[in-house]
Amino acid sequence: MVRTIERLPKRQRHQQLSRLIDENPFITDRELTRQLKVSIQTIRLDRMELAIPELRERLKLMAERSYDAVRSLPLHEVIGDIVDLQLDRSGISIFEIRAEHVFSRTGIARGHHVFAQANSLAVAVINEEIALTATADIRFVRSVKLGEKCIAKAYVRSISGERSKAKVEVFSYVGDEMVFQGHFVIYRSTGETVIEGGI
Amino acid sequence: MVRTIERLPKRQRHQQLSRLIDENPFITDRELTRQLKVSIQTIRLDRMELAIPELRERLKLMAERSYDAVRSLPLHEVIGDIVDLQLDRSGISIFEIRAEHVFSRTGIARGHHVFAQANSLAVAVINEEIALTATADIRFVRSVKLGEKCIAKAYVRSISGERSKAKVEVFSYVGDEMVFQGHFVIYRSTGETVIEGGI
DNA sequence: CAGCTATTATAACCTGGTACTAATTATATA
DNA sequence: TATATAATTAGTACCAGGTTATAATAGCTG
């Protein structure tokens, strides 16, 4: 194991290689030889050492990731994971604030994501075929930050007979701190199923 | 052009082929020969006729799509396309309701997407480093449906000096019908830049 | 100089195709 | 029934973008 001062060029090249592939996963080894001025064999040895798969494998992995993402999009139906639900009474959901939910400069969650969790919970807790938000009166008590887990609790306050509206209150917490509260009025249209655009 | 009654088997196969590739884009021609019991040349002729690219092209296209999606995620910062913006005065954004925004059984847009458009426009129109929604009072006037284009118009109603709050009204329309209205109070913290989670 | 790492070269082989030519089979219509 | 036409199958050459393996060369260093 000879370890001298000048063993950098390889490491530097490895870094550059990682960076290049990272910022353009569609690059071929041949392209990389041109950019890094080493033989194609060196590139391939480097990829080996760095455990970077070949172009086609990279594309396949990306395709698989996006395919899975599309498949799990129906999960997008409700924002947050519902962990408890008593129809027409109450419900609880958990929503973790991730990078895609925050203002990138501040790491503070955009209001509509916090709202979305509360709104979809308020709709879910109503035991009806079709339930739509009519009005909402909301307050963002304190900002929610990247990585925090937002726990929303919904309570159905009143259901006007078998009629059209229900009132739902939602409170969202991070730990024991309330971060959001909202009063929702939800439309509940029981009978008619007016679906259009069939086939 | 001979057109008789019994020219179906090919069309049927084409349909099956399309379906198979659609539900598993990762399938090779060789696999397809096994499933459809025809030669690999037939499979390839069929793909030609149907203009279905080869496996590797399909994966590359999927990878590109997802890569673009990730790259344009910062565009996710604002929901809807802002088409006009006069800072501290008014703004307009357009948001097309797509399949991922609606209740699948009814084709009616989920409230939080309509809200998200209005909310992000209300925040965008405020000319400040950091602007956060404090409260909102919203009303969903009529439901918005799949395929409709939602046009939100925001008006800044008052700015309390150089202080902390601004009032913004947002009205959303489909055509000339108002579908949503909201009164937002937006926090505007000028000076302090309290960013955490650095590196 | 020996010994070591790093790099480059060379060749065989692989997958999943395209492009092209040709033969075979099925079908339909005059 | 013959024959034109369409559909299918077969076979070959070639390609990109690699892997695997084996060997040669360069460069330093003690």
UniProtKB/TrEMBL annotation, chains A, B:
<keyword id="KW-0805">Transcription regulation</keyword>
<comment type="function">
    <text>Transcriptional factor involved in regulation of membrane lipid biosynthesis by repressing genes involved in fatty acid and phospholipid metabolism.</text>
</comment>
<keyword id="KW-0444">Lipid biosynthesis</keyword>
<dbReference type="InterPro" id="IPR036388">
    <property type="entry name" value="WH-like_DNA-bd_sf"/>
</dbReference>
<keyword id="KW-0804">Transcription</keyword>
<keyword id="KW-0443">Lipid metabolism</keyword>
<keyword id="KW-0238">DNA-binding</keyword>
<dbReference type="Pfam" id="PF03061">
    <property type="entry name" value="4HBT"/>
</dbReference>
<keyword id="KW-0678">Repressor</keyword>
<dbReference type="InterPro" id="IPR029069">
    <property type="entry name" value="HotDog_dom_sf"/>
</dbReference>
<dbReference type="InterPro" id="IPR017275">
    <property type="entry name" value="Transcription_factor_FapR"/>
</dbReference>
<protein>
    <recommendedName>
        <fullName>Transcription factor FapR</fullName>
    </recommendedName>
</protein>
<comment type="similarity">
    <text>Belongs to the FapR family.</text>
</comment>
<keyword id="KW-0275">Fatty acid biosynthesis</keyword>
<keyword id="KW-0276">Fatty acid metabolism</keyword>
<dbReference type="InterPro" id="IPR006683">
    <property type="entry name" value="Thioestr_dom"/>
</dbReference>
<feature type="domain" description="Thioesterase">
    <location>
        <begin position="120"/>
        <end position="175"/>
    </location>
</feature>
